[in-house]
Specification:
139 residues; alpha+beta; two-stranded antiparallel sheet; 4 strands; elongated
């Protein structure tokens, strides 16, 4: 997680990010990264939904396993633009069968939980949008 040069705000380093295991911890890290901006949260949620929609219908995606891949979230303070990218694809491999990317992993089934992870991220972003909007509205 990296903020723009000159931004003086708390930010987790790589070793701290690797220890995040609970939804509240992830939500707090996201809030730090976007500096509690509802517009950025909404934009990321929309991009994540767009990616999930494309992946749900992509035959190539459904036939590959994406173990140890990442999702890179970037936004610009200046333009307000956001981007969400799949990265670290070097360990992706053909699974030899159609996957759900939501079924639980079992030895040999090649399931990776990728779409479950996207669903969880979208849910976290949606909750954060609600929370930040409520705070902004004084509720």
């Amino acid at each position: 997680m990296r903020l723009a040069d000159g931004v003086d705000a708390p930010c987790l380093d790589v070793s701290e990010l690797r220890t995040l295991t609970t939804e509240p911890d992830v939500a707090e890290a996201v809030l730090q990264y976007v500096q509690s901006r509802p517009s950025v949260l909404r934009a990321f949620a929309a991009k994540l939904r767009q990616i999930r929609s494309v992946l749900d219908t992509c035959d190539t995606f459904m036939m590959h396993s994406f173990i140890r891949t990442s999702i890179l979230l970037i936004y610009s303070d200046e333009t307000g633009e956001v981007s969400v990218n799949m990265i670290d694809l070097s360990r992706a491999y053909a699974a030899g069968r159609r996957l759900t990317h939501r079924d639980a992993w079992m030895p040999g089934n090649h399931e990776d939980g990728y779409l479950t992870g996207l669903d969880n991220l979208i849910r976290i972003f949606d909750k954060l949008v609600e929370q930040t909007m409520a705070v902004a509205d004084g509720l």
